[in-house]
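Researcher: Sequence recovery benchmark, item below. Answer with residues only.
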C-alpha cells in the first residue's frame, strides 16, 4: 500500500464521518487507544485516526503473520486495514574531502493489520470508556475557565 493510499484512507474516513453526521457530528472513534498485539505499543499519528475510525472496539491490532504466530489466525475472508510505519534513519557518509557527515531521512513502510475481532480465539476485553469516570479533568478545567457554557459543567 502506498503512502498516498494511507492518507487517502484517513481522509476518506473523515469525509465519511462528516457526510454521515453532518452538523450532528460526534466522536465516532474509539478512545481506548489502538495497540499492537505483539509489542503492546500504541499506534500514533495518522494510524490513530485510521484504526480508531473502524468498528472494532478492542483496539488490538496485528499483521497476518503476528496473529498466526500467536496461534490466532485471521478468519477467512477478512479484509485488512492499512497503516503506515515511519522510521527515522541516519546515515553517515564520507565526503570527497574526507570529512564525514550525517544525513537523516525517513523510511515509510505500509502494513496491513487485522483487528482482534477478526481472528480466531483471541480473548477480547473491551472496557467501558463512556461516562464521567473517563473524562479528562485537566481539559475540563481548562474549558470551564474559558467562559464557554456547557450543561455538563453546570
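Model:
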Amino acid at each position: 500500500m502506498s503512502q498516498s493510499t494511507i492518507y487517502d484512507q484517513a481522509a476518506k474516513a473523515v469525509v465519511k464521518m462528516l457526510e454521515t453526521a453532518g452538523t450532528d457530528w460526534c466522536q465516532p472513534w474509539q478512545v481506548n487507544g489502538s495497540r499492537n498485539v505483539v509489542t503492546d505499543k500504541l499506534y500514533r499519528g495518522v494510524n490513530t485516526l485510521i484504526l480508531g475510525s473502524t468498528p472494532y472496539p478492542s483496539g488490538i491490532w496485528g499483521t497476518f503473520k503476528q496473529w498466526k504466530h500467536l496461534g490466532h489466525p485471521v478468519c477467512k475472508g477478512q479484509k485488512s486495514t492499512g497503516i503506515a510505519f515511519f522510521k527515522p534513519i541516519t546515515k553517515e557518509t564520507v565526503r570527497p574531502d574526507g570529512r564525514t557527515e550525517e544525513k537523516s531521512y525517513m523510511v515509510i513502510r505500509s502494513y496491513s493489520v487485522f483487528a482482534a475481532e477478526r481472528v480466531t480465539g483471541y480473548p477480547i476485553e473491551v472496557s467501558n470508556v463512556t461516562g464521567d469516570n473517563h473524562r479528562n479533568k485537566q481539559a475540563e478545567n481548562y474549558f470551564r475557565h474559558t467562559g464557554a457554557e456547557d450543561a455538563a459543567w453546570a
